[in-house]
C-alpha cells in the first residue's frame, strides 16, 4: 500500500502541478508527511478527485485504498460521456499470470520489462 500512497502523491502533482508537502528541511518534511496534512490548492477540483486523493494520501496504511479499490473509485470509473469504465478483468488476468509465473521463480519486474520490449 506504500505504492498507493506514492500514486496519491503523483496524482496530486498531476492535478495541481506541485508537491503536496513543502518544507525547509528534511526533518520538517518528514513531520508533515507523517501528519498527512496537505492543502487543496485549486477549488475547481471535483469532490470525487478530492475524495480519491484523501484515500490515497492516507497516513494509515490500513485505511489506504488498495490498487483495485483505487481503480474502482468513482472518479476513475467516470468518463467524459459517462459511458465507459475501466475493465478490471484484464487486471485480474494479469495477476493470475504473475502468480503462476512466481511458482517458477520468474520475477514480476522481468516479465514487465519483457512485455515492454514486445511493445
Automatic annotation (TrEMBL):
Q: Which UniProt keywords apply?
A: ATP-binding, Kinase, Nucleotide-binding, Serine/threonine-protein kinase, Transferase
Q: Name one GO molecular function term.
A: ATP binding
The Protein kinase domain, residue ranges: 1-76
Q: Which organism is it from?
A: Strombidium inclinatum
Name of protein: Protein kinase domain-containing protein
Is DNA repair tagged as a keyword? Answer: no
Establish whether keyword Kinase is in the entry: yes
What InterPro entries does the entry give?
Aur-like, Kinase-like_dom_sf, Prot_kinase_dom
**Cited PANTHER family:** SERINE/THREONINE-PROTEIN KINASE IAL-RELATED (PTHR24350)
Q: Where are the transmembrane segments?
A: none
Instruction: Tell me which Gene3D superfamilies the record gives.
Output: Transferase(Phosphotransferase) domain 1
Amino acid at each position: 500500500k506504500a505504492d498507493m500512497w506514492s500514486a496519491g502523491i503523483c496524482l496530486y502533482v498531476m492535478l495541481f502541478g506541485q508537491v503536496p508537502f513543502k518544507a525547509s528541511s528534511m526533518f520538517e518534511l518528514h513531520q508533515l508527511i507523517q501528519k498527512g496534512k496537505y492543502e487543496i490548492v485549486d477549488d475547481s477540483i471535483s469532490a470525487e478527485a478530492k475524495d480519491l486523493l484523501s484515500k490515497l494520501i492516507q497516513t494509515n496504511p490500513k485505511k489506504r485504498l488498495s490498487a483495485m479499490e483505487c481503480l474502482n473509485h468513482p472518479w476513475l470509473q467516470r468518463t467524459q460521456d459517462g459511458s465507459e469504465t475501466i475493465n478490471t478483468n484484464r487486471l485480474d488476468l494479469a495477476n493470475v499470470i504473475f502468480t503462476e509465473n512466481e511458482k517458477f521463480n520468474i520475477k514480476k519486474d522481468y516479465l514487465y520489462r519483457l512485455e515492454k520490449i514486445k511493445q
